[in-house]
Amino acid sequence: MHPVLENLIGLLRLEQIEDNIFRGDSRDIGSPQVFGGQVLGQALSAAQNTVDGRVAHSLHAYFLRRGDVNSPIIYEVDRARDGGSFSNRRVVAIQHGRPILNLAASFQDPEEGLVHQAEMPDVPGPDGLKDLTDVAKDMLRHIPSVMRRFMTDKRPFEFRHVEPVNFETPEKLPPKKHVWIRAVDTLPDNPVLHQNLLTYVSDYELLGTAMLPHGLSFTRGSVIMASLDHALWFHGEVKIDEWLLYAMDSPNSSGARGLARGQLFTEDGRLVASTSQEGLMRVIDPDEWRPPRSKPGTQK
Q1: How many domains would you assign to the chain?
Q2: Residue among 256, 158, 170, 243 nearest 207 (CA)
Q3: pLDDT category, 142, cuts 50, 70, 90?
Q4: pLDDT band for position 27 (50/70/90)?
Q5: For residues 94 and 65, what is the distance between their CA atoms, to the nearest angstrom?
Q6: Is residue 300 in a domain?
Q7: In this predicted model, what pLDDT tens digit does every residue of 48-107 receive, in sequence order?
Q8: 218 within a domain of the structure (yes/no)
Q9: Which CATH number do you get for residue 238?
Q10: Which of 227, 250, 253, 263 is catalytic?
Q11: Which one is catalytic: 33, 38, 202, 203?
């Protein structure tokens, strides 16, 4: 298996240190704090470790504090309910004695029922599109040095944008974006693993959709962006090592916050997951702003 992907799978595999208590490592991917998708994926993994036979169908999370990339994260699971068909779990992610994320996840016994879905957008397929890492390398001179590793390091997923990516002179565009996503290598046929990896990657790209109407980009240093909450619904079986179209839009930005929504479709048009996220979008003067010192429990 590709070592970067294998490394991520190991990151999402937690150590159990007590009943309902788990520990996960942190990973520096070049962002100022622990990547939100890592904490989401690990929190879901902690909840999954306490459920037998049922499959996650939704999760809802709030990001409370920045995660420290130099310290492990403790996950405490509350087995809130095991009913006849559904199980609910509440998870608190803790660093330095303080919560950094609250997550609730719901699990269900497999069950047949009524079926309908949204129509897949009519956009070009992934073949022939450039990967985001290659696009970023072509525009290195326009990316601030502190962001270059985050944009150009080898990743466990391919990201192929349908719409052109412009780091040099971002234009004001409609708040819609389409990105093809796939793991860089074949994965074991393990539904829990595929759900964890989709949860991890669902935090990429999403909030940036709310920046499009304003002609701003986090790579230009003129805006502070941070996820505030994240929701994910699984509609069916997910295979993250096959191409998925991440179709995103943003219905609103206000109060220094942006709201973004996403739908994930297979190449043959099956809707397998939906997402929503609100995040901080604070416009700043890049000449006056300095990154905050890395400090446990830093508020947004």
Answers
A1: 1
A2: 256
A3: low
A4: confident
A5: 10
A6: no
A7: 999 999 999 999 999 999 999 999 999 999 999 999 999 999 999 999 999 999 999 999
A8: yes
A9: 2.40.160.210
A10: 227
A11: 203
Distance in angstroms (rounded) separating the CA atoms of residues 257 and 246: 21
Coil/strand/helix, residue 86 = strand
> Is 108 noted as a catalytic residue in this protein?
no
What is the CB-side half-sphere exposure of residue 6 using CA atoms within 13 A? 3
Task: Judge whether 24 and 16 are in contact, CB under 8 Å.
Answer: no
CB-based contacts of 80: which residues, under 8 Å, 6+ apart? 88, 89, 90, 104
Active site residue 16: no
Question: What is the percentage of the chain residues whose pLDDT exceeds 70?
Answer: 85
HSE-up of 248 (CA within 13 Å, CB side)? 31
Neighbours of 222 (CB within 10 A): 18
Catalytic site includes residue 222: no
